[in-house]
Design a protein that fits this description.
Layout lengths: L1 H12 L2 H29 L8 H4 L8 H15 L5 H8 L1 H6 L4 H34 L19 H6 L1 H27 L6 H13 L2 H4 L7 H4 L11 H23 L6
Helix pairs in contact: 1-7, 2-4, 2-7, 4-7, 4-9, 4-10, 7-9, 9-10, 9-13
Length: 266
């Protein structure tokens, strides 16, 4: 299993799709800093409670185009690097060569774990890069309850005002988890479909279809809304986020397990 995981991670990282996704995310991250942050540095270079790395972080600056574009593209970025790996192996016959050296069960478990982690990594690298650069540009002044956007009823408000680093960490973790989950959807679909394009488009269609919650008056159940750290809708809470996660995660896992079980009678 360890050898399979090493091989999978090496294949996932050393491929063109991974590099393209990282480049796209980094570009959005850098453009947000260049357009939304740098012009204000000359005015707030000494630090301000409303102009600091925590407030101007791309995930917490939810009213600019780059943040909205990044979270709109999240399922594409997450699923593009490795979600089609099983599809590629199956249609090239590469998986059969692995079956001769390892148990099929280990192959499928390794593929699922690697794809989930890679899907999470590629969507948080741009966020980490953005925050790191902001930490170099701006003094780490803590947000003030009189200036920042979070209200007492919002989720993790005390973390934002009193432990902002932890707040950033929580949202990185949430983004990682949902990035991995949407990548898992692509992998699950790859066990059934003949069209490689469906591997990437299915997570996107699911992601977009979840905006129906907004039409139903439940915008806090839309991932594109609750993954943004400045919480643009109410009432976002960890219970509803957890329910959405488990539905998507368990659903994709069951679909994947059912699909791969048909692989040569497994």
């Amino acid at each position: 299993m360890i050898k399979l995981l090493k091989m999978d991670f090496k294949r996932a990282i050393y491929n063109r799709q991974f590099l393209i996704v990282i480049a796209i995310g980094a570009l959005l991250s850098l453009m947000q800093i260049y357009i939304e942050v740098i012009p204000g540095v000359k005015y707030y270079g000494d630090g301000a409670s409303y102009f600091n790395p925590f407030v101007k972080w791309i995930s917490n600056d939810g009213f600019n185009h780059f943040t909205l574009l990044f979270f709109m593209l999240l399922p594409v970025l997450a699923s593009l690097p490795y979600s089609d790996s099983y599809w590629v192996d199956k249609h090239s016959g590469f998986n059969k060569s692995i079956y001769t050296r390892s148990k099929k069960k280990n192959y499928f478990i390794s593929r699922y774990i690697t794809n989930f982690i890679i899907g999470g990594i590629v969507v948080i690298i741009p966020l980490i890069l953005n925050f790191y650069i902001l930490m170099m540009l701006l003094p780490a002044v803590h947000p003030s309850i009189f200036d920042a956007s979070l209200l007492p009823k919002d989720m993790f408000t005390s973390l934002f005002y009193f432990h902002p680093y932890l707040y950033v960490g929580v949202y990185l973790l949430l983004t990682f988890i949902f990035g991995g989950t949407f990548a898992s959807m692509g992998l699950a679909v790859s066990a059934y479909c003949k069209n490689r394009l469906l591997v990437v488009t299915t997570p996107v269609l699911v992601y977009i279809s979840m905006h129906m919650f907004e039409l139903a008056g439940l915008p806090h159940l839309v991932p594109a809304k609750f993954l943004i750290a400045d919480q643009p809708v109410h009432p976002i809470n960890i219970v509803s986020i957890s329910i959405i996660f488990f539905i998507l995660f368990i659903g994709s896992l069951m679909i994947y397990a059912k699909g791969v079980s048909k692989d040569e009678g497994i």
